[in-house]
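Proteins fold reproducibly. Look at a sample protein:
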Amino acid sequence: MGTRILVTGATGFIGGRVAAAAAAHPDLDHLRLLVRRPDAARVAPPDGSSAGGPVVETVQGDLRDPESLRRACDGMDAVVHCASAIGGPEELQIAVNEHGTGALVAAAVRAGAGRIVSLSTASVHGRGPFRAAAPGSLPLAPGSTTSRTRAAGERYVLDAGGSVLRPHLVYGMGDRQVVPGLLTLLAALPRPLACTGTLHSTVEVDSLAGALLGAALSPATRPGAYYVSHPDPVSAAEFLAAVGPLLPEAVRTAPGPALELAEARALLAGNPLAAHHLEMFGVDHWFADERPWADFGRGPGPAFTAAFARHLPWYRDHLAGRAGRP
């Protein structure tokens, strides 16, 4: 008999990729997708069997409704938890990211699920600089409500012997935060940003989805926290070159010397959104962890420059649509 897996956040940016990968996996017997709204089920793989894959079932539930979580976990061998509240009211983030994760873990343990895998973020460590930071070497120091509540949710998973995956920058089709945020930063500056030599951990969304599914299935997965990123960190220069084609010509050709980090900080003092992305991009955020790709039986995929090129058409369409909104 194959494995039975529950995926939460199955209609989201990352959880949707996990759901799609799981729906095509020959070693799964049953895939259950937890969705918050009944109409959201239509964007997940349809109910039924896919060729060579598991039976796929969608169920309605909410991380704020413990009874729905008990029903969702019933009969499952593993849980891959990708749902979260990013931004929004503090009380919502506490209810979903902290208390909701706790309720889900309790339901999974009660149901006898032998593997709990949870998607988190390296932002639970706050802002860098972090250069080749090894697992277990950094304290938790979240700097936002989102990161703080996700760190609180991690504790339930870790206390239950589960595994937490902490990516840093996740890019690819569906990304509405990382690359759009960097473009917002660059457009807010009067001149180009100087390449600072910083290094960043990145992971392509499909590679991350493969790691999450692999963590749920691999016998080598260890309890505890993993940093999940491509083994090769990405330099600021590589990042700027990759997103360059997405910038308006006026931004690409702005005259004058490139801005150093201190100058950019001063110019963005009244622009908190752009300043946030400057602090993310302007200092090292490199987390070094060789374990995930060996433990989960998945490869990290191509390096950033080659992988990013595949997603350029999607980013262009997304940005054009965003610019065309009233």
